[in-house]
């Protein structure tokens, strides 16, 4: 990943839900790029808008929600201008999605091979069944599902296998971007670890781009190249994984990283206890949305929303407290290293 | 208030479990019932023994289907056991009558994973918490409200007067779990069975709940059975840990001992699989093949042998017993000596 090619640009994206208590912006003016071939992690706590963001990238927000603002530029084209048919083709062929619970995503009365053949034929109606099946078999073999398993129904497979079928469905049309929304969350650790290995492999083999949406920060450290941290509908920090974990700039990222349990015995013995809980988005705090929980909040944090700005090449942060001199110090420290 | 005395002859251990077994019969169709005599059983827990020190925290860890939840439930009598004995404070629980067992329940309380599912949506927080007092301390009726308020303050639901008349859906997930904790502690129990108590909470809330549980343990002299699938979280609260695989204990001992030198290949795999929040320390080991086998017909010999990268002939033939290879560290593996430094 030396040269970074932008695959998708998200520009000033907002998603609004109509609720009884008035409109709620679950995603509020977010801007970022997804690079070709990278594994980008999107982390945050429940209700921060990470799943909404994943759906919005495929324009799959259902009423009472809608994309109220912004552009989604995929390979140079703004998909917000696509009509229904074009959008339908875009989903699946360009971008596909894997969800937390594969059992609800797979059809219980359809065999694995039928799922794959259907996916191929919907997008490429001229493909004959035999050809489609052959393609499906080759792909699934590579994902570690034997040929005999292809005629199984979803309930006959284990959780890990079902998730691999979902990945297969995403790959069979050669999608460029796969969005995995909590795809490993319901799996046991060993199965999860295997899926992580598999996701890395398919990135290397097929060159796909992965957007991994998760609440599991340790998983992001294990898997991703870059990470975006979300809080209350905003991305508060974005950058290369090592830099963020070594030197988090936003107070929320700092607190979050310190409150993640670590199995290594020599690591710190106590978890950091962040005060408060994430805010309710019907009435988000004024100014910086993290200020009521921020240990370092100043007057300006309560009054004005900070900008999401690039402080060093590739590192973005949305915080008033990150001053340029701190960033300079940080750079100096790196040079010394 | 607690009548537990340290003079009790059960000594250091509050809970002692011997050869605990729980088999669930498998549902069969009528035709199968007629033509086959033998019934099939899911061997959820299959001969498990452990002791818990007074004031200690025993972690029960394993993947889904390992039997960790069933062990907890059978131990405190929420589920009838198939075989085995449970001693609580020196008392054999199977010798108690229903009435005596009900009284004993005051001393053993439970915290479940999903606080919303554990709370009645039509009961205010105060009335949910007071239930235990009504059953176990009816004579203190006048003081109930004060006791509830005091406990709510203690678990961090402050100001308690503001929360006491609220309903579960009006508060956040972290606060709901605090209500469940308050409800468990109000009867002054000795033992708390905590079944994945923080698994539903967000990371930032988890640390707070974990810390609360540690504080309350000290303050009320509690003993915990802490059921979790997350070995990293266990590190912060458990003194001892039992690693379960398919209804059996693979390894048990002092947590620090087990984590610093895991002797069972399954423990080794499980620990390696846990992601570490440090991108510089990514996992390099590959994971064992296959998945947890069917608990109706578990593999012969050592139950882990079909997936074990080190399996020898003996592993498929003979079942390993738990051996104390190191002080406070037992393992059920034929070849565990190979992993000692």
Please, could you describe this protein's structure?
The complex is a heterodimer of chains A (337) and B (341). With 337 residues, chain A is α/β, with parallel strands linked by helices. Helix content of chain A is 35%, strand content 24%. In chain A, the strands form 2 sheets. Chain A has an 8-stranded mixed sheet, sandwiched between helices. In chain A, strands 2-1-4-5 form a 4-stranded antiparallel sheet. Chain B is 31% helix and 22% strand. Chain B has helices at residues 30-35, 68-75, 98-104, 115-118, 125-136, 144-154, 160-163, 173-185, 203-220, 231-234, 255-260, 265-273, 313-317, and strands spanning 13-25, 41-53, 57-61, 83-88, 91-92, 108-111, 191-195, 223-228, 240-245, 248-254, 323-326, 329-331. The longest helix of chain B has 18 residues, at 203-220. Chain B starts with 12 loop residues before the first strand and ends in a 10-residue tail after the last strand. Classes of the chains: A alpha/beta (337), B alpha/beta (341). Chains A and B meet through helix 7, helix 8, helix 9 and helix 10 of A and helix 9, helix 10, helix 11 and helix 12 of B.
Strand-pairing-aware structural class of chain A = alpha/beta
In the CATH hierarchy, what is the architecture of chain A at level 2?
3-Layer(aba) Sandwich
Q: Major β-sheet of chain A, in short?
A: 8 strands, mixed
Biggest sheet of chain B, strands in spatial order?
6-7-8-3-9-10-12-11
Q: From the alpha carbons, calculate the radius of gyration of chain B and give it in angstroms.
A: 22 Å
Would you kindly provide a brief summary of this structure?
The complex is a heterodimer of chains A (337) and B (341). In chain A, 35% of the residues lie in helices and 24% in strands.
Layout of helices and strands, plus pairs?
The complex is a heterodimer of chains A (337) and B (341).
Chain A: E1 6-19, E2 22-35, E3 39-43, H1 50-57, E4 65-74, E5 77-78, H2 84-93, E6 95-98, H3 102-105, H4 112-123, H5 129-142, H6 159-171, E7 177-181, H7 189-206, E8 209-214, H8 217-223, E9 226-231, E10 234-240, H9 241-246, H10 251-258, H11 299-303, E11 309-312, E12 315-317, H12 324-336
Parallel strand pairs in A: 3-8, 3-9, 6-7, 7-8
Antiparallel strand pairs in A: 1-2, 1-4, 4-5, 9-10, 10-12, 11-12
Helix pairs in contact in A: 4-5, 6-7
Chain B: E1 13-25, H1 30-35, E2 41-53, E3 57-61, H2 68-75, E4 83-88, E5 91-92, H3 98-104, E6 108-111, H4 115-118, H5 125-136, H6 144-154, H7 160-163, H8 173-185, E7 191-195, H9 203-220, E8 223-228, H10 231-234, E9 240-245, E10 248-254, H11 255-260, H12 265-273, H13 313-317, E11 323-326, E12 329-331
Parallel strand pairs in B: 3-8, 3-9, 6-7, 7-8
Antiparallel strand pairs in B: 1-2, 1-4, 4-5, 9-10, 10-12, 11-12
